[in-house]
From TrEMBL:
The protein's Enzyme Commission number: 2.4.1.25
Keywords assigned: Carbohydrate metabolism, Glycosyltransferase, Transferase
The protein's name: 4-alpha-glucanotransferase
Source species of the chain: Micrococcus yunnanensis
UniProt domain Glycosyltransferase subfamily 4-like N-terminal: residue ranges: 748-940
An individual GO BP term: carbohydrate metabolic process
Boundaries of every MalQ N-terminal beta-sandwich domain copy: 76-167
Pfam families, sorted: Glyco_hydro_77, Glyco_trans_4_4, Glycos_transf_1, MalQ_N
Amino acid sequence: MEDPMALEAPALLHRLARAHGVQPEYVGQDGSAQTVPDEALVKVLAALGVSVRPDGVAALAEAVEEAETAPWRDVLPPTVAARSGHRLSVPCHVAAGEPVVARVHTEDGRTLEVSVSEPVSEVRLVDGVERERVHVQIPADLAPGWHRLEVTSGSGSTASAVLVCAPSRLSTARPFLERRGWGAAAQGYSVTSADSWGIGDAADMASLAEIVARHGADFLLLHPLHAVEPGPHPADSPYSPVSRRFLSALVVHVPSIPEFADLPAAEQAELRSAGARVQAELERTGRIDRAAVAAVLWPALRRVHEVPRSPEREAAYARFRAEAGPGLDDFALWSVLRLDGDGTGPDLADPAWAPGGVEAERVRVERATDVDLHRWVQWIAAEQLAGVQERARSAGMRMGVMVDLAVGATRETADAWMLGDVLVPTMSVGAPPELFNQLGQDWSQHPWHPRRLAETGYAAFRDMLRTVLRGAGGIRMDHVLGLFRLWWIPEGAGATQGAYVEYDHEAMLAVLTLEAERAGVVVVGEDLGTFEPWVQRRLAEAGVLGTSILWFEQEDGEPTPPERYRRLAMAAVNTHDLPPTAGYLEGVQVDLRERLGLYTVDVAQERRRSAEEVRAFLAAAARRGLLAEADVDVPEAGPEVRERQIVALHRLLAQAPSALHSVALVDAVGERRIQNQPGTLQDQYPNWTVPLGDGAGRMVSVEDLADSASAARLFDAVDAELRASVPVGIGVSLHTSPLAQPGRGDAGGMNVYVRQAAVALARRGVRMILLTRAEEPVGADGARVRMVDAGGQAPPVTVVDLAAGPSAPVPKEELAGLGAEFTRAALDWLASDAVPGGPVLGGADAPPVAFVHGHYWLSGSTAAALARAAHAPYLQTMHTTAAAKMLEDPELREPDARVEAERGIVERADLLVVNSAAEVADLRELLDVPRARTRVLPPGADLETFTPDGAAQWPGAPEDDGALRVLFAGRVQRHKGPHLLVSALGVLRERAGGAGVDPGVRLHVNGAASGDNGLDLAGLAAREGVADLVTFSGPVPAPALAAQFRAADVVAMPSASETYGLVALEAQACGTPVLAHRVGGLVYAVLDGVSGRHVTAGTPEAWAEALAEILADRDAWAALGTGAVRHAAGHSWEAYADGLLEAVAAVPRRSPGLDA
């Protein structure tokens, strides 16, 4: 490690900043390198408790040394984040030479012993004592939950850490990956009804949900509903709450509170009349006045609070208080203190007024009724929002309400008082300069303190999430990049004078995904702005959807084709920080920013850029037949043209594969005005106070929206486009049916691969069609259609047997001659009305074909022809090649026709989907395929069928004689190598003493003869003198095969070559280690020494030696079963499908007429 004293002050300051998670440099949104000023670094470090001068070399060097030594003083980090299904190594620091025992205490009361690795040259002198680093191994099978990690050293000292284990991947978005959904995005406060009190409330939101649900919407995205000031002057911005954990009183619809009906009729009328006057003033002025709303709302709430509750209601209120915990009491107390301080208190610096302080507790007791009022309001708000969700789901929405989570709470308000040093009082959160906000942004919100968050087990973050997620179906996280880093702005500095501070994103993601999974909530992250590319990938791995905005999706200045949008995302035309689409098409944002002085570039140039951008997107819609050419260039478009343009852009977006599509309510009514102009104050622009209006600015109420023809047209158009644009995937397997029983004839791992891949793709919303040659008579139309259920809401997989050649099995060697006939049959059938759901080739109504995927060389010419006809990417998986087979077996000679055909296939294919890096190397070395045209996608295993749990059934001799049970499952042909196992038994028997001596091994062969290779295993067993040790059976369905795997001690794969080896994965998934020939993809399918062992030579002697080693230490072999399960668990068909669709999105679309 470099000596800190040898560095200059600037370098030391940067090193110190990095040690504390402060980034001294960052990459701007435009790709430029940016350096943070030293002054900003010093202030941010001071906020983290590190006080230094930027020019004091000695002090800086000392601070660096302390920062790099500090972790060694801690036995464990305060919080550890793990992912179920993934092993984790946790650093642990103890005195050198001390033994360590580690345990995990799970949330359900169990205690698990976990292993500790030996130190490997990781030693440091700390405060004169030599300490070493060991690693605690958290097992992959730890269940998701809140656990505690505890370590005890040899001296008897004990240390512990919070251990939060997240699900491997958030599963809540799965229904929308199977079938895409759409919803309306609304600033709920802006949509009022005749019964509103000057602002949109829970009753209005419920009505709004029911209106859009009638058109097929699955969700209603609302503005943040966080708590606002309890006094007479609540902030206008819903993104500037006083607390994110609690709810806004402004959402409450007072007449819907059950106790309101118990008030005297005259009093009810008086309260309603007061609310109606505020509503009338809103309609007169066209501005939402939250102060006026608060002036009538709080007296009404106070009066209803005084009404006695029924025993049932009182019990419900008591349950709410118990579930919310002491945080609810503290928030209610803060609300009272805030009002007592004329909207400025309590004093955050005075301990007497802090939570638990003497003065604060005095008020809690003396003002118990007032405190209870604010506690009760939270119950009412939560109850009414739960009612919104109930009505939304009852109306047919699959998700219901999606709530919005703000970045933080306003400085020096409730969260700052309640959370103390978990927030940083001298810093504000914001954003550096970027395209749409060239002066940067300061959101006036305290950031989390990363170290204190960890030291408190992320309790504040967890508790806030639990409240926000309660009763919701989805959550949109504003600036989700804040889980990774936040832009800290020192108090008094400008937004450009900040620095990025990093957070433990693995811990933040673990808390988020664990709580969201338990709540059943879909998570959407707003991942726009300045970020590093890997961040989006990590969010997607966690199952968090990103955000794609139409105007931002551009490549080299041109609109990105919808097919290239992210699937794991919510797509929208605009956001609340941009004008409605009608306004954007006119360029109102340019006019507004110019008027407010927000530009640092030439305004005329920006106006031209905006107009060119708009034209490009409208032209893209026109090219797809979504908009008439005459409607593209209309400078002064009238309402009808503007509506057609808006509908066309939303339809264009709906052709993207994104799981969710958001339609802004403002677009449905033609609104032009922006709701919020970032970087401005209320005296510059009326942010967050504009009620929903039409193109002329006239207010649109809930009742108006229910009868709006334009809103209905947009909603119905989006719903219809989503249903019509379900992408089609075509798989071609000419020589063997995906439905054939593996192990029989030519059916094997490839059949499983094609079928399971198609099912997984269907579960990702792709309408899969698999084409194969019929081997028995079919109908008069030359096809037999079978549907395979993909489960859930996924479209079924269509398997089509096409007549080509004899209606009977044909030797594989003769099938190439039927390729042209099979191709014609495929083209004709796909263009016919016989296709379930309608033709997929030809015609204006044909759905988009996402890809055509050929399997094995015999399918290549057909797949290429279909891709050309569908203008779709052509993918090819070889599964094996003649060149690779001949390399592995020099005595083998494949037909020249196959060799030449495979060369043509790899030249024509847009992408070669391969199973392993070994296959990439083979294709490059043997067929000159560039690495860039390959994509490694390891196949998955059916982890629902092949599991360690379930029946075990050995297919050989029924008695358990204690012998080592070896299972071979596959086609009985020389290439698969079962003869090597039979002969290996002969070698073992000879070593044991010859005929009649039991070598302690039994072999069962599960499979049927394949091809004309003359492989007679029974005869071979007799000649080797091991007929009593070998049994045989035919292929069996997957559940029975899983039972055989569980009963076996060893599953053997002696193949001459394998591109991967599905049998190996399936066996390991059942907990059985695999003995595999060290060739091709088996090197990756079986991890040597972890999930099985490799045999380096394809000879009987080598296999006999490998089996003898297992016999010598059967316990060590059986112990590999844990690693086998873990390794197989990392191979899911869902991951394969995600990878394939990601790869397809990167392949350029074929233009009509392009030759394959």
